[in-house]
Amino acid sequence: MKSFFYLKIALSVIFLYYVIFNVDMDKIIDALGHAELNFVFFSALLLVPNLFLQWYKWHFLMKIPLKTVDRSVTIKTFMISLYFGLLTPGKLGEYGRAFLLPYNPKSALLGFTVLDKAYNYIVIFISGIIAAYYIFYGYLEEHAAVNGILGIIIALVFFVIIYFIFNPGKFYIKMKSINDNYFKKDYISNFIFCLDRISPWLNLRLMLLSAVFIFVCLVQFYFLVMAFGEISFIPGIESLNLVIFINTFVPLFFGNLGLREGAAVFLLSRYGVESGAAFNAGLSLFVINLLFPAIIGYIIFLKQKQSQNADDNN
């Protein structure tokens, strides 16, 4: 586990160095020297609704199987999971919050946690595909075959998403049937239990919460671009949508350090944003939205361990 963690950090450093090497260190330093700190402040301030929306949606879902759940417990667990999420590919450690809760069954809590994340992925996928279409419209027009194949794949994915939103019960019946006939495992039954407890209306409400959360992230990113450079709002949001899409579905490195910055440099350059400004915006977003909350989560984790050790010694 430790060797894998160090490998991730090494890959991140190598990739980040490669991006810096191609950007030009002088441009990065120059953009930092001319940063407008008010935009950085506004972006950092939006971390509060960012974290609140993430916690609230998960806490709300936890109340479905548990009926009553202590807010202080879910807040601490949520923050600790951000620390583990930073250390794992695709933020897989964040799913561990289901196992950190002092409630059972864990497999059912994991199912609701996966569902919580699924709403975010659906919103990011839809918004990212729309952004990609507008950004690469000219290329797709010239390559009809590529356009057609991508169109079919995207249409199928959209069909599955829409079907899931409006028919969660049918998903549950199908998966329950597969488990009853082939696997006969209680933990699978518990895991898919979440699909039997949500309605189309609840799906839409939770999707809306995810959409607001993603929009907050985009505005944070946009403010950081404006802190180091300049870009109009609509083109900026389109490009940053695609950066977040790439960063979400290509989970390679430690906090995807380097990938986010590289994607920002490439996509924002189409609208005249200097590479140094785009790089600094991506790195600043990593510090504000990932590193800082993870540090808080780590501190909470250490305090809990110390408290447990003290109880064990007594």
Describe the structure.
The model has no long low-confidence stretch (mean pLDDT 88). Helix 7 (106-135) packs across helix 12 (200-228) and helix 12 (200-228) packs across helix 13 (233-249). The chain has one domain. The chain starts with a helix and ends with a helix. The chain has helices at 2-23, 25-33, 37-45, 47-66, 71-86, 97-100, 106-135, 137-142, 144-166, 168-183, 186-192, 200-228, 233-249, 259-268, 275-313. It has 15 helices and no strands. It is 82% helix and 0% strand. With 314 residues, the protein is an all-alpha fold.
The largest sheet, given as strand count, sense and whether it forms a barrel, is: none
**Residue fraction in strands:** under 5%
Unreliable residue runs: none
Order of helices and strands: HHHHHHHHHHHHHHH
Descriptors:
15 helices; 314 residues; mainly alpha
Layout of secondary structure:
Layout: H1 2-23, H2 25-33, H3 37-45, H4 47-66, H5 71-86, H6 97-100, H7 106-135, H8 137-142, H9 144-166, H10 168-183, H11 186-192, H12 200-228, H13 233-249, H14 259-268, H15 275-313
Helix pairs in contact: 1-14, 2-15, 3-12, 4-7, 4-12, 5-15, 7-11, 7-12, 7-13, 12-13, 12-15, 13-14, 14-15
